[in-house]
Predict the structure.
Amino acid sequence: MGMLDEILSHNMEYVSTRQYESLQTDKFPDKGLAILACMDARLVELLPQALGIRNGDAKLIKNAGALVTAPWGSVMRSLLVAVYALRAEEICVIAHYDCGMGTIDATAILAEARKRGISEDVIRTLRVSGIDLDGFLKGFANVEDSVRNTCTIVRQHPLLPRDVPVHGLIMDPSTGRLDTIVNGYVVMNAEKQDEA
Ligand SMILES: [Zn+2]
């Protein structure tokens, strides 16, 4: 049985026995929180449990590394939609130690791509057309710097309201312990003092 069949078979059972009933809620996050977290499989259940978040409490956006690399990309758009259309009032960026994005690099990924049938021709054509494959496939050297950088891009986004704090945290992927890298309230207060 393929994975899809397995999922669909579980799904039929899940819906017909009304197991969803304990999770019913609406689309507005009860805790007014939008979270950008890493997609790491170890965080699937650990992250909400370690944060005390239940279904309906937060908007949860995930990608490799909990990264915002471009101010006009889909992750930033999701955060803005969370704030403006879905009543998120605070943002948490949550990366983790031992992250896969800390070890990847373009050379290794492209070598794998070649093995999986992506031709040298395609790679050359992409480079020639100005696609920065090395930048696109780059991980980060230091997770703390990466969290700080993402928080700065989000916080300084011209469309983010000034009263939305952006916190940066790193999770231990085995215990769920959070280390605070950026305290969004402190940043906001410092900005207010600078303006005064
Ligand atoms: Zn990760």
